[in-house]
Design a protein that fits this description.
The chain has a single domain, classed as Distorted Sandwich (Beta-galactosidase, Chain A, domain 5). The chain contains four helices and 28 strands. The protein has helices at residues 70-77, 80-86, 104-108, 323-329, and strands at residues 8-14, 17-23, 27-32, 38-43, 92-95, 123-129, 134-142, 147-155, 161-170, 176-178, 181-187, 197-199, 202-207, 224-226, 229-231, 237-239, 250-257, 263-270, 275-282, 288-295, 308-315, 331-332, 335-336, 339-341, 346-357, 367-371, 374-378, 384-388. A hairpin with a 5-residue loop joins β15 (229-231) and β16 (237-239). The radius of gyration is 20 Å and the shape is globular. The model has no long low-confidence stretch (mean pLDDT 95).
Length: 400
């Protein structure tokens, strides 16, 4: 008897928002068409595994961000500069073609935080459903940037790995310099100050040059440090692999990922819940990680001092600042701070996300490696957790 195909992809709703739900017998992923956000990645309920969604869900009701109108929604979400993004934000957010705030002149013309992509209407261009994999392709056009963008999300049977393939198409007759950031945000209850930690292969870092919203900065501005220890504005040091150490304060830092590595990663672990989420990517595509924490600091709406979230944002750019400031930087730590797509050309990146149920006592992530068709997570005491990842192929590369 032919085995039942457990792969699926179908339209869905998430908190009243239009979405697509992809899944196999092990995991499910929800992606929104409003902004393209990955809102949920979790184990299927019937598997007896921790089915908590590690991705951050805002504590405020969201809307389709392309429906944001400042005159109507300012009191709920803030001004257009940030409010358009915040009105629809969830989980894993794409920043394209800039990382940070628009200039005042750009904001007057309708641009919001982190570019056009996270506030635009994305459209389905293809669904493939077969016995070997299910794949959903969504596309969006960025008229101001003159870029086209597609994201393919792929799942294979009986794997807790999600394969992403993204392509930027330049519609101009000139080279285009831009920022490309995967703004992955994790949240409570997966993240907990008592139980959780994050990991990435960081080296040199610098704190945000403009402090933090409402003067609630945990860390001094423009301070150089070595990941993960950094001094605070109040004296002493903190370990940025730990979470929510100083309620009422927040921070942003930029970290150079180890230049000796071919594969970079970011990860979040809750040993008590025995749940791990991670992303792996080519370091040449995303050499930076911007690390952000909001710990009930911002009083303005929609934050209202009720959010605990940690962003682990792997990126072609280190610091979320207006593009004039970003491009004036040139390089940082002898490393480029932007992406380039040639005139009428295209650029493609691949990366993977995964979930794992960890064994008792697995309380630290030291490294994540690709070995043939497996993702291997190395923990304390040489403990190793291996995940099947047939989409990597025998070469163990990000080239599907």
């Amino acid at each position: 008897m032919k085995p039942k195909n457990t792969l699926f992809c179908r339209p869905a709703f998430w908190h009243g928002r239009k979405a697509f739900l992809l899944g196999n017998s092990l995991v499910q992923l929800t992606t929104l068409t409003g902004g393209g956000h990955i809102a949920e990645l979790r184990f299927a309920d019937a598997k007896g595994l921790p089915c908590l969604n590690p991705l951050w869900v805002p504590p405020w009701p969201t809307i389709e961000p392309y429906n944001y109108r400042e005159e109507t929604h300012r009191s709920r979400y803030g001004t257009l500069t940030e409010g358009k993004l915040l009105s629809g934000l969830a989980g894993h957010n794409l920043c394209l073609d800039y990382f940070g705030s628009p200039s005042p002149e750009e904001a007057k013309r309708g641009l919001s935080q982190h570019g056009e992509a996270p506030s635009a209407r994305w459209r389905k261009t293809r669904i493939h459903l077969g016995s070997q994999y299910v794949a959903l392709t969504l596309g969006v056009r960025l008229p101001v940037a003159s870029l086209g963008f597609t994201r393919e999300i792929k799942l294979r049977p009986n794997e807790s790995v999600v394969y992403f393939k993204e392509t930027v198409q330049n519609e101009r007759n000139a080279d285009h310099f831009f920022h490309w950031t995967q703004h992955v945000t994790l949240g409570a209850p997966f993240l907990s100050g008592n139980d959780s930690l994050v990991a990435l292969p960081g080296t040199r870092g610098i704190t945000f040059p403009h402090g933090y919203d409402e003067n609630k900065a945990l860390l001094p501005a423009s301070h150089l440090f070595r990941w993960p220890k950094v001094r605070t504005t109040r004296g002493g040091t903190v370990d940025l692999t730990r979470l929510f150490l100083h309620r009422g304060l927040g921070f942003v830092v930029s970290v150079l990922l180890d230049p000796k590595r071919d594969i970079g990663f970011i990860a979040g672990l809750n040993p008590r819940l025995r749940l791990l989420i991670g992303y792996c990517f080519k370091r040449q595509d995303f050499p930076w990680a911007a690390v952000w924490e909001e710990n009930c600091a911002i009083s303005a709406p929609p934050w209202n001092r009720r959010t605990q979230a940690r962003g682990l944002e792997f990126s072609s750019s280190p610091i979320p600042v207006p593009r004039r400031e970003a491009f004036a930087m040139g390089t940082l730590f002898e490393t480029p701070t932007f992406s380039v797509v040639p005139a009428r050309g295209r650029k493609t990146v691949n990366y993977a996300a995964f979930l794992a149920s960890t064994p008792v006592g697995f309380n630290r992530v030291d490294d994540i490696q690709f070995v043939r068709n497996e993702i291997r997570i190395l923990g304390a005491g040489q403990r190793t957790l291996a995940l099947s990842a047939g989409g990597l192929g025998e070469s163990g590369g990000l080239n599907w």
